[in-house]
Automatic annotation (TrEMBL):
Residues 1-27 are annotated as: Disordered. The keyword Lyase does not apply. This is Gamma-glutamyl-gamma-aminobutyrate hydrolase family protein. One of its GO terms (molecular function) is hydrolase activity. Pfam families: GATase. Residues 43-204 form the Glutamine amidotransferase domain. PROSITE patterns: GATASE_TYPE_1.
Length: 288
């Protein structure tokens, strides 16, 4: 059997990409590649940046040659009419039309929502930073393969300021929490299927800590932290847990359980997407 062909679409600006690399050593797309290669050893993984001016994004025919497309998080706000956003939405519409299964984290869910006719807005309940707490499945979500293996309520790495306001017509709400009503969803549009989450199953905890440090001023403005020292202290605890995931004292202090501290459980939605949608679709298409 030939290896899976996976495409990661990164929508960070060049400036944000370099800030992230300076902070944690990788762009969002590069992190996704590392995570996917660990989950699917031997997969052929490519990276594109469709939001960038002059970037050569695959057309629909080329997209159909992939087994899955993954959309990363992004600092872009899809409700802003900018060239970058227009290019990103056009790419996502091509992904839907290609019929290739797609998955998105955080802004990836928002891009898919907007491309299929839904709406996104600034989060009315403020920023969700570090962890999305007490995510719970809807009735539809409890039986959906995207969330297979998740308990009745779970936490997940999350850093976002925007949220899905209204899902597209042919979409299914799968999970939510007290901060964002849409934490997981399935979207069917133009012959394609997208599974996505508002949180970050692809992120290792040290990169989550880096994201908090980069957004320290915003966290202080939101009154989530008193000062940068408080942000750094919290981030340092998360980094320490990354280095020693078995430290029960840190997990207790941060209020986390193995749904976050165990990498395989943290990546549940990515693994489910590959096993329950990508591989069956590949077989249905007759690819050996």
């Amino acid at each position: 059997m030939t290896s899976l062909r996976l495409l990661v679409a990164e929508s960070e600006t060049a400036e944000e990409r370099e800030r992230r690399r300076a902070s944690v050593g990788r762009s969002s797309g590069e992190t996704y590649l590392d995570t996917l290669r660990a989950i699917v050893p031997g997969a052929e993984c490519d990276l594109v940046r469709p939001a960038e001016e002059g970037a050569r994004a695959p057309d629909r025919a080329a997209l159909a040659g992939y087994d899955a497309v993954f959309l990363t998080g992004s600092p872009l706000h899809v409700y802003e009419d900018t060239p970058e956003v227009r290019r990103q939405l056009a790419f996502m519409r091509d992904v839907f039309a290609s019929g290739t299964p797609s998955f998105g984290s955080c802004a990836g869910l928002q891009v898919a929502t907007a491309a299929a006719g839904g709406t996104v807005r600034e989060n009315r309940r403020g920023h969700e930073a570090a962890f999305a707490r007490r995510i719970t499945a809807t009735a539809a979500g409890r039986d959906h393969p995207l969330l297979a293996g998740r308990p009745g309520a779970w936490d997940a790495p999350a850093v976002h300021t925007d949220e899905v306001e209204r899902l597209p017509e042919d979409a299914t709400l799968l999970a939510g929490n007290g901060v964002s009503a849409v934490q997981a969803a399935e979207i069917r549009h133009a012959g394609g299927i997208f599974w996505g989450v508002q949180y970050h199953p692809e992120l290792p905890l040290d990169e989550l800590a880096g994201a908090l440090r980069r957004q320290a001023e915003s966290l202080i403005e939101q009154e989530l932290a008193r000062d940068k020292a408080a942000v750094d202290d919290y981030a340092a605890q998360i980094e320490a847990l990354h280095r020693e995931p078995g430290r029960r004292d840190l997990a207790w202090r941060l209020g986390l359980d193995p749904q976050v501290t165990d990498p395989a459980r943290r990546q549940t939605e990515l693994r489910n997407f590959i096993e329950h949608l990508v591989r069956p679709t590949r077989q249905a298409r007759g690819r050996a």
